[in-house]
Every structure is written in C-alpha cells, then in structure tokens.
Amino acid sequence: MSESTATARLSETERRLVETNGIEIIDETERTARPADLFWPWFAANVSVFGISYASYVFGFGINFTQALIVTVIGVVASFLACGIIAIAGKRGSAPTMVLSRAAFGVKGQKVPGVFSWLISMGWETFLAIMAVLATATVFTQLGWGGGTTTKVLACAVIAALIVAASVAGYHTIMRLQSILTWLTGAATIAYILMTLDRIDMAAVTSREPGSVESVIGALVLLMTGFGLGWINIAADWSRYQRRDASGGAIVLWNTLGGALAPTLLVLYGLLLIGSQPELEAGIVNDPIGTLATILPIWFLVPFLLAAVLALVSGAVLGIYSSGLTLLSLGIDIPRPAAALVDGTILTLGTIWVVFFAQSFLAPFQSFLITLGVPIAAWAGILMADVALRRRDYDERALFDPRGRYGDWNWTAIGLMVLAALVGWGLVINTFADAAAWNNWQGYLLSPLGLGGKEGTWAWANLGVLVALAIGFVGWLTLGRAIVRRQEND
C-alpha cells in the first residue's frame, strides 16, 4: 500500500461521524495518535469545578490543611500514574482495556473483572449525569427561573441526549469535542476561582487541628478512588489508537498530566475555599455543583452552569463509550454504537430514579464506589504487574481465541483477584450504614487483625483498597512471571 493511499483512507476514517470499530484490533492505518493527544480527553473529563467539592470530603476526615495538601498531591497524581501504566497496554495491543485484560485472566476468565468494570463505569457516568441535573435545578432556582420538576425533566432529557449522542459517535468525535471542551470548561473554572478568591481566609484555613495517621490514609484512599482509580478500568481505551512506535514513557506522562493536573489544582483550591467557608460543607453533601454556585454573582451563574454541566457530560461520555466496549468484551454481540446506546438508556433510567424518587444518592453511591473499588484495585494491581512483566506486544489473534496462548481461564489470576478482594473487603467499612444498610457486611477482618473493629479508628482508613492493589500487583509479579514468559515464548 502506498503512503498516499494509506493517508487517504485515514482521512476518510477520521471524517466519519460514527466510529464503527468495536473491540476488534485497530487497523494500522488508523493508529496515528500521538502520546500528547491523550492529554485532551483526560484533562477535559477532569477539569470540573466538582473537583473543588472534594475538599469537603477530605476535611471530613478531620485532617488539617498541610495534611490535606500532601494527600491531595500524592493521591491524585499516583492514581492517574496507575492509569498511565495501564494505558501502555493499549499501544501494545490496540484493543480496549478489558480485552487486553484477557492476556492475564484468559479469554473467558476476563469476564470476572469485566463485570465489575462495567458496574463501576455505569455507576460513575450515572453519578455525573445526576450531578449535572441537580446543579441545573439549583442554579435555575437562584436565578428565579424555577428549578422544580419541569426544570429537572428538561435538564435530564438534554444531558442524557448529549452524553448518549457523543458516546454513540465514538472515538474521533469525542477526541474533537474534548479538545474544545477543555478550553471552555478550563476558562470558566479559572473565572470561578478569580471570582471567589476574596473569600479565602488563610487564618481559618490553617487553624484546623491535625488528624491521625488513620485519617490521613482514609483521605488518601478517597482521593485515589475518586479520581484515577475510578478511571483505571478504561485507561487503555484511549491509547489503542496510538502509533505502534509511540514511547511508553510519553504515554504514561501525558496520561498522568492530563488526568491529574486539573484535579490536583482544583482540590487544592477547594481546600482553601471550603477551609475558609465551612458552611459550604453541608450543601456539598447532596448537591456539590449547585452549592458551589451559591457564592457566585447572579450574572455569572449561566456561564458557570454551562461550563459545569459540559465538564460533567465530558466525563460521562468517556464512561459510556468505555462501558459499551466493556459490554462487548463480555460477549454481547451487538455493534459498538448499539452498546453505547444500551448503556445510555440505563444511565437515563438511573438518573431519573435518583433525581425524582431517591431520598439520598451521594451516601449510597460512595458506599457502592468503595465496594467496587476493592476488586477493581485488585484487578488494576494485576494488570499493572502484567504490563511490567511483558516484553513483547500482545498476540492480537490470541486475545480473541480461547485456544490461543492466553487460554480460556487463567485461574491463577482469577484466584489472586478473589483473594485480594476478600482481604480488601475485610479491611473497609460501610461508612454510610444508615443510607446503605445492605452494605454493612464489610470490615470482617478489622477485629481479628487487632485494628479496633468496625468502631475503631483504622476502620475509617479504608485500607482494603490499598491492600487489594498491593496484593494484586505483588502477587502477579511473583506468580505471573513464569506464565507471561511461557505465553511470550509459545
């Protein structure tokens, strides 16, 4: 094939409105992305004023500003660094994250982590849509334009339509949209900071008493699960269009920079703002974006709302797109756009239920997030170790053939994930026992290990997420080394 012919085909592909690629291997002629291109989708999905509200949850652990600053930088950057490591797999195999996971778990065994991945993706994107609807209602109320049922119905319809339409369109459309949204939402976020700078009171911020080691670890885990670990199961979905000769280090760098830059700065500003205005904490619990809007001048509410909603939509689009790919990897035989539409329908129904019928959504969601975060952390540890162990690109044909070198079920990896999850669940507690009583079974190892039981101070540290990640990573580095070498020499 001549260079001019390949270029012509690439241009035709990039002009398509709807991406037709599903979980199959991306053709070489379409793999033209550069590592720096990864900055845009990750930055756009995370440059949201919602990041400011995380300061409220961090201070909720009873730590002071210095401690909060340290855990913010470490937690956010480390969690997106983990995403960057897994993104290397996308370049090596040009397939979605959960398909590449088959190399470690087996072609059929991958369905075990795949189910957890799909659930956590659906939970995240629904959560973002819910916040966008509630923020719209709150801002409309402040403007005197209503904010009741009619506003919520219209907001729900428009937001769901935007999310579903972009995710159905696919990779090329999303990449273009994200590069535009980055500038719009970034500008509005900077304007928000400039308009609220006069509310910063450093004396109030620095007056908080330091918290215990357990409290610091708890805040660290919250930030890791709320940011990078919440995206880690889709990290390779956006790097599968990378050139085969792209630098792995550059992929890690741009993925980490794009994901971590905005949240780190926004949470740090949130520590200053909410540390100065503690009355904001109560409202943030049920309506983070809307509460942050209450301190803005009336004339800026509409631009703020548009930017905030677009940022949340941006994050939800990435989630829907990837959850559709995960659905396909589980064996659902439908086109990729149809899979995105199925997940979009579920998102819409979930948003309607929470906005119009549920009494509280944030507490059950956080309980749900920590619960799913444990097995996903275990899976992430295994996959990061798998990326570190491999010296060659993936056998792309074998990723779809149970009789190939990766086999159908890798019981070593599956058993390791189950073990890590069981240990991890034993070391976390349901911090929302009243709102999510169905989740009170966790924390069963806290007493046997002498950590004070479910009422002790270590219970709030949520050590289980970090322990599950460590067990998965160290375990596969140890047990998977011979398996990977055998696969690569087959």
UniProtKB/TrEMBL annotation:
Primary localization: membrane
Keyword tags: Membrane, Transmembrane, Transmembrane helix, Transport
Record-annotated membrane-spanning stretches: 38-59, 65-89, 115-140, 152-173, 180-197, 217-236, 248-275, 295-328, 340-362, 368-389, 409-438, 458-479
Keyword Transferase part of the UniProt annotation: no
Localization of this protein: Membrane
Molecular functions per Gene Ontology: transmembrane transporter activity
UniProt GO cellular component terms: plasma membrane
Keyword flag Acyltransferase: no
Family: Belongs to the purine-cytosine permease (2.A.39) family.
Protein name (Swiss-Prot/TrEMBL): Cytosine/purine/uracil/thiamine/allantoin permease family protein
Protein species of origin: Serinicoccus hydrothermalis
